[in-house]
């Protein structure tokens, strides 16, 4: 059985989560509990803090299960 990655977005970034490589360290929920939760679904809420703080936390993911990319901004002519 294959488990698909999950994506969570705000206006600035999209955070991806790959459960197949997650080591369940809990570091994300411990260090940025207003965004990452062990007990609430959905367990990621990117609206609860600044994008900069989320990026910093994603970079500290010990397994690399969390990644992010910047969303493309639409240009209206």
Name a few traits of the molecule.
Alpha-Beta Plaits, three-stranded antiparallel β-sheet, 18% helix, alpha+beta
Please provide a brief summary of the model.
This protein is of the alpha+beta class. It has one domain: 2-Layer Sandwich (Alpha-Beta Plaits).
- Total strand count, please? 3
Number of domains: 1
Report the CATH architecture: 2-Layer Sandwich
Distance between the termini: 46 Å
Count of helical regions: 2
The CATH first-level class comes to: Alpha Beta
Strand content: 15-25%
- Could you spell the SSE succession in H and E letters? EEHHE
**What is the average of the pLDDT values?**
89
Radius of gyration: 13 Å
Structural class: alpha+beta
Q: Portion of residues in helices?
A: 10-25%
Architecture overview:
- The chain has 77 residues and is of the alpha+beta class.
- The chain has a single domain, classed as 2-Layer Sandwich (Alpha-Beta Plaits).
- It has helices at residues 27-31, 51-59, and strands spanning 6-9, 13-17, 66-70.
- Strands 1-2-3 form a three-stranded antiparallel sheet, with helices on one face.
- A hairpin with a 3-residue loop joins strand 1 (6-9) and strand 2 (13-17).
- The radius of gyration is 13 Å and the shape is globular.
- The mean pLDDT is 89.
